[in-house]
Amino acid sequence: MNTIPPLDLARQYQALQDDINAAVLAVLASSQYIGGPVVAQFEQAFADYTQTPFCISCNSGTDALYLALRAFDIGPGDEVITSPFTFIATAEVISMAGATPVFVDIAPETFNLDAEQLEAAITPRTRAIMPVHLFGQTADMTRVMAIAQAHTLPVIEDCAQATGAIWQNPTGQTQKVGSIGDIGCFSFYPSKNLGGYGDGGAITTHSATLAEKMRIVRDHGRRSGYIHEAIGMNSRLDAIQAAILSVKLRHLDQWNLQRKAIAARYAQLLGNIPGITIPQAFQDSVWNQYTIRVNHEGDLHYLGRSRDRILNSAADVALNASAIEPPAPRRDQVRTALGEQGIQSMVYYPLPLHLQPVYAHLGYEIGQLPIADKAALEVLSLPMFPELTVAEQEQVRDGLKDVLLRC
Ligand SMILES: Cc1ncc(COP(=O)(O)O)c(C=O)c1O
Fold first, then answer.
1. How large is the greatest C-alpha to C-alpha distance in the chain, in angstroms?
2. What is the CA(48)–ligand 1 centre distance, in A?
3. Does the Cβ of 61 fall within 6 Å of ligand 1?
4. Per-residue pLDDT reduced to its tens digit, 297-313
5. Cβ of residue 60 lying under 6 Å from some atom of ligand 1
């Protein structure tokens, strides 16, 4: 049985290993491991790529988002509106800054923040809007930008999963994600469309003032030397990562095209299978994930289990042990059965952020953001990486058809 992983970074490395090895060895020989020309060259190349004048590299996508909030002095008493259906980092940084995340439900077709519901969430405390381009798909930036402008709120784009995605603005011009809002935040975690061989991130902006502020906070609150004008952090990108990313950046558009071709082939192969819903690209998607829905007919209460198990004491859990547990979503059985056939899949994300134990104090209830809740019970991300073969995609189709008959 041929095992198909959700992503296979080794295949990409094998194709590029001569260039990557040479770039890494050059850094090792240079003895300039932090900062220096290799990092500066990558920042310039990434600024050019994202069509922004300023790029500040940093240690992770999480730090990029945090630095963006710091650029706007967002802190205690402030609210930032974002999506509940994303990786925890998006909301975590809002909390790290001392502010409160406000979650707006997602649109069912895109898994991205539903811009139609955005305006109702704005309060006098709102200080920024943070849309996420989830799974590679651009958020509805036309509406988001219009609402942000109407309320003079900054927009911080979470581009972690969408490096290279393109949005067409209302005047018909195309813009890369990260150049649309005030600040774009990128992750170079290995599984991202542009991934390093360790942690890494970057921030892009059109504003020299914001760029300067973020550059200072990124490096211990200093411009240079040992004079510190802000409480900062150490969030520098290593030269080795910058060297690797510079090599890989040259291939990013080609890889994104391959991802699009794979998504189109999946659509052909899976489009007529009953019981699942395949994803669509609206404005653009660079398909960091190919996430289907395994349709869930039951109610949403299964989601309560994870939170309750953590929040309730052991005694409560024992007391409730006899209570009837809501059944697991069919998606979980499908995933297990696919795994038995060697087809590995992932669930991004099994619990939306507003229902996470860490955010219980915010008081969100199951069903309050029903589209995100339902997505958490239905999503299944199939193998997706640029080197995935036609034969592997056909194996996914055959496996899925077979499994859905049985589950
Ligand atoms: C949507 C989103 N935002 C932020 C991050 C954080 O990026 P990093 O892992 O580089 O800190 C991730 C990473 O998985 C992500 O998927």
1. 67
2. 22
3. yes
4. 888 888 887 777 777 76
5. yes
- 252-406 adopts what CATH topology? Aspartate Aminotransferase, domain 1 (3.90.1150)
Q: What ranges do the domains of the chain cover?
A: 9-249, 252-406
For the segment(s) 9-249, the CATH number from 3.30.300.20, 3.30.160.20, 3.40.640.10, 3.40.30.10 is 3.40.640.10
CA 187 – ligand 1 centroid, Å: 6
What value, to the nearest 5°, has the Cα angle with vertex 377 and ends 375 and 381?
70
**Atom number in ligand 1 closest to CA 199:** 10
Residues 123-163: tens digit of each pLDDT: 999 999 999 999 999 999 999 999 999 999 999 999 999 99
Dihedral of alpha carbons 64, 65, 68, 69, sign = negative
To test the ligand 1 pocket, which listed residue (82, 95, 137, 161) has its Cβ within 8 A of the most ligand atoms? 161
Indicate whether residue 158 lines ligand 1 (CB < 6 A).
yes
> What is the residue whose two structure tokens read 């920024």?
128
CB 384 within 8 A of CB 399: no
